[in-house]
Amino acid sequence: MLKKHLPLILFCFLLLLSISWQKNGETIDLFNKNIMPNSDYWFGTDWLGRDVFSRTLKALLFSLAMGGLASLCCTLLSTCLALIGNVNSACSYLINTLIDVWSALPHILVMIVLSILAGGGFEGLVIAITFSHWPKLTRLLKVEIEQLRHKPYVLHSLAFGHSTLRCYITHLTPHLLPQILTGMIILYPQALVHGAGLTFLGFGIEPSTPSMGGMLSEASQYLLSGQWWLALFPGIVLVTSSLLLMLIGTRVRR
Prior knowledge:
Number of domains: 1
Number of helices: 10
Helix content: over 70%
Shape: elongated
CATH superfamily: MetI-like
Radius of gyration: 22 Å
CATH class: Mainly Alpha
Number of strands: 0
Strand content: under 5%
Distance between the termini: 15 Å
Structural class: mainly alpha
CATH architecture: Orthogonal Bundle
Order of helices and strands: HHHHHHHHHH
CATH topology: MetI-like fold
């Protein structure tokens, strides 16, 4: 039982540690700059003497909040579009065409353009990820709704005079909720990594705000001078949290 829920336990521990950690990693100490990892500074310090461990935890918390909100908004958008696509044949054709066109666009280019149009920052990242990740989940939910609409219990409910809205709420929602929940959890690590990628490229969070992409982008400028720990440990934390979220999504889907 413990092994089955180990990814969830580890992720919750990482999240609670990030929330409860008192230091924010913003304190500048020029007398202790560029220190390698030791017992006092587990992840070392950067060029301004800031504790990399504390900055990593706060950056992870910020990125998790951004990724969670983006995946939630994307799931809600996908569900609405899937429902609209099942109103009639014209709406179905329109949504299918929109999915095909949007899926054909370069993914990273779409996110960059949306982030710029939204003004960057936290809101820009959420908007960019929300409006670039919806096609796959929308297609999945749309097909699922199409199949459920032709089930005998749905047809019998409509024949007895129940409204379409009542049928959707009573009969379709219990079957769609697992798909929606699984889709949101699977979107979470993608949103986390893509948000860090946009910030790394300079289209996301301001450098003054701790974020995983921002830390990796700043660390890349100091790798040649031998400060390998500035990129190694934040990168490990980002990859670990993403893998844990992927494992949780796989468990939920099974």
